[in-house]
Please model this.
Amino acid sequence: MITKQDVQSKLKEDRIEYLLAQFVDINGSPKVKMVPADSFDDIVDEGAGFAGAALEGMGQGPHSHDMMARPDMDSYTPLPWRDGVARFACDLFVDDEPHMYCPRQNMKRVLSDVNAAGYSFQVGIEPEHFLVTRTDDGIRVWDPSNVDSLAKPCYDFKGIANVMDYLQDMMDAMGKLGWGVYQADHEDANGQYEINFVYADALVTADRYTFFKMMTSQFAQKYGAIATHMAKPFTDRTGNGGHIHYHLADAETGKNLFVDENDPRGLGTSELGYHFIGGILEHASALAAVMSPTVNCYKRLQVGEGLRSSASGFNWTPAFISYGDNNRTQMIRTAGPGNLEDRTISAACNPYLAFAAYVAAGMDGIARKLDPGEPNTGNLYELGLQEIGRRGIQLLPQTLHEALGELRKDEVVKDGLGVIYDEFVELKEAEWAEYHAQVSQWEIDRYLTLF
Model:
């Protein structure tokens, strides 16, 4: 635990002149105020003031008292792209009380229940993103050397060499921040990249993922590119996931409680882990609204022929509510003993809301001792929808509208969102209505002279 005095020493040592007091709105978008380092005591004791009604989903009107952003000392992060500036992830308060419309405050509420049960929720994330540039009619891949054009570009040397300066900037920065960065690669789509860093407590990972997105935007800009974490920026290419790897650990010892080397199912997963999986599968349809919270996300969660809609042959995003062994056609993959991976989560999620809802669903599975059934093996993509249905495997919602309908019926996931639930549903219903009212170029091209 870093103290205020520790941070004051670091500010002097790192020659920090300005601070960014940062929180996220309901969409997970980082919001900041810039504060002179001389005012550090003020933001610790009082906070940086914000008018909540200026933002979406913060539970405030123009008459509301200020939201005060107070820094978490453990989140002290010098900006790698600009000397003399540091960022703090902040919690919001109103009239000295925790403001529970703050996604970070809500996540801490949920995690306090997990900790009270003797667990800590440990999460790692695979942050996929594209580097693009704008054109007169949309976007294209940022490809300075014109080499990233293979039909199967995943892991290709030329594709990664093409952006090595950007990747080195990112990895150097993450290394200096102590995140345990350990690899980067060119992903399945042209212009798509992933940079991995190690597991941490869920709150730390949410803070880091938020800062990771901030960092990609700044380093990409240095090279004339835009870093996008949009779920599906290209029709014919794979989308951006935020796959999570996770387990529950003993809150005191840190021992992974999902490990059982004597697992009779052969996956190395404990009874506790299976109950957690049972909770996720039970609530998966409602969780989809939080894990894939935009209309665009559902163009990534495709079924049927859509499974082969990407240029590379697969979209790598299971839309089946299932779990299995080390098998990427499953929603939940057992990547190793005690290591579960959920592949359906979108890069467009708000990680604070996503992790809070997710662990709430898993803890419900533990409380009710839910059994997920036998694991699925083999290639689910090849089965076809008829066989999938015959086996009793359900599909994730295929639109935001459908997912919101499932969320309204699920008290566990609603509780995971706390008071944010009403704001979330209202905002997302409006998003769906606005999207559904648009007439797209596809519709013009298909129907203008058809009749």
